[in-house]
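Can you give me the bound-state structure? Components:
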Amino acid sequence: MTPESLSHMKPALEIRSKVLQAVRDFFVGRGFVEVETPVRIPDPALELYIDAEPSGGAYLRTSPELHMKRLLAAGYERIFQIGPCFRRGERGRLHNPEFTMLEWYRLNADYNDILMDTKMLISSVARKVLGGTSLTYKGVQIELMPVWECLSVEEAFLLHAGWNPVKKYDADRFDLDLVGKVEPGLSLKCPVVLKDYPAEAAALARRKPGMEEVAERWELYIAGMEIVNAFSELTDPVEQRRRFEECAAERAKAGRDVYRLDEEFLKALEKGMPDAGGAALGVDRLVMLLAGADSIAGVRAFCS
Amino acid sequence: MYAVGDLRKGLKIEIEGVPYLITEYSFLKPGKGQAVYTVRMKNLLTGSTMTKSYRSNEAFGEPNIEEKELRFSYKENDDFVFVDENYEQFSISAEVLGNSKFFLAEDMKVNAMYFNGQPIEVTLPFFVEKKIIFTEPGARGNTATNVTKPATIEGGYEIHVPLFINQGDTVRIDTRTGDYADRVSK
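Here's the bound-state model for the whole set.
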């Protein structure tokens, strides 16, 4: 990056600094403990479509999730972390192989409690950074409060893609239609929550009691951008091991690197973990929104 | 072979024996889902464009494309003869040249693209100067540029020019569009 382009992004980086400060104030004020977990790890979480960057016999984390859940299992009740994560090959307007993630977790909570946290967090950060909860992003007026449109994945697909992925899941069609039809159809005027994903599309989430074909997972979209992913955490060690093993087999079949199961994490679940909810928020995208930046490169210094 | 993750704007790929130039490229990925790569590309044989979406398991061929810097030498029947720096001769048909054939001038430097040894596209300098050999006189004193009239350049190609351009003037033409750009001299 040239000195000119660095100085050009100064306003965006100042907003970034304010966002980080506002996030910390929010969580600390609610009794959360800020934690730091290893960035270079032996066993990244097994996910079908997330690839870890190798790092001298280990990997760079794709998310701090498994370590943070080990803290939960050890009795930490409310924790949050802000830090770098790495995902190989992800580069585009909304993606960079190195990015900044905020994750937070609570014991004795589920994805509905986390949604309330998120609503208060977004509102509190916007008030501190912008002085209010209205903003204009790429020419569209957005009201961050008070209305958040909430629809199930089933409803959203029936409405915008014309089929029901919960009745009969088709992984390829699901992802193509999600980015090609459903996401472009979401309202841009207020935050939108898509909830209750087909269980196949949520490797680390608990199945919904009484509706076993979906998992308790939601995603928050603002201005059409996916900003937050949240779960009621899966705490059943047998089910978790089975899902990891299935995922490892699928990855091997697809020719992707296969990571070992994180046995320390599974051991923590076996000792017993209370119900918990958690979320991951893309900090760069939240800054994009508040700074009016078109791409992730506009809010990260030295992002090529 | 290229994997879909190798694609980028400006790259040339081959699909079912046809070479394409990537003109736009986007990477979309739901956090937990598969990446979707949307690619806009130009068919280098026909010039038409298309947009397609791919997932990460796609692979693309690497077209056998060679680019040569040539200079125009002379025209022989329907063929146009060019030479490289060693004065080796290369013949390219009027069909491949399309409208570019009207804008060539002796010694003009061009870039010729070959696919599997066959010429498929010739790129001229963006602007060339041509003399108007015929146009009706325009209204006197009319200097508006948004009103045009037909004019014929040397070689017989017809363009649209502002009314103040006269027969015998030299004009600059944008070879990418084949349109009038500005007047060089009276």
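A couple of observations. The longest helix of chain A spans residues 10-29. The mean pLDDT of chain A is 95.
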